[in-house]
Design a protein that fits this description.
Elements: E1 7-14, H1 17-33, E2 39-47, E3 50-59, H2 64-69, H3 76-84, E4 91-97, H4 101-108, E5 114-120, H5 124-136
Antiparallel strand pairs: 1-4, 1-5, 2-3, 2-4
Helix pairs in contact: 1-4, 3-5
């Protein structure tokens, strides 16, 4: 995504990993049915007290999140840092993308115990801060 575009960060918080994965699957299905814009998404949790990335996806394969962080792959380090902040037993579905993903997120994310949404023009540092902030909310 270009630096001059507005970016959204949506986080769904879950008590159950399977529910987060089901919402991610529903989000992916909506992408196939509708044009919802560029995005990256990941389900993160802790396994045995250690940060864990359960599943990640990016569409198109331009890898929106890494463009902000200056990496070629979805940045494992930042996602793991966010997972470290999770309260025990919580799982997160993290979606970063163009504002057009909002409608699909609202349709697909029906199982989350809590949802946090942030709209912003992101720099690398701002995106990291927003992700960490959303994890703590």
């Amino acid at each position: 995504m270009a630096d001059d575009k507005s970016t959204v960060l949506y986080v769904g918080m879950y008590d159950d990993k399977d529910l987060a994965l089901q919402d991610l699957e529903a989000f992916e299905q909506l992408r196939e049915e509708e044009v919802i814009g560029d995005y990256d998404a990941a389900v993160i949790d802790k396994e045995d007290g250690k940060a864990h990335i359960v599943k990640r996806v990016d569409h198109p394969r331009t890898r929106a999140i890494p463009e902000f962080f200056g990496h070629g792959d979805l940045p494992k380090k930042e996602l793991e840092e966010a997972a470290e902040e999770l309260p025990g037993g919580m799982v997160e579905l993290v979606v970063v993308g163009e504002p057009t993903v909002g409608k699909a997120f609202d349709k697909a994310v029906t199982r989350a115990a809590k949802v946090v949404k942030h709209d912003f023009n992101a720099t690398t540092d701002e995106l990291v801060k927003e992700l960490m902030k959303a994890t703590k909310e």
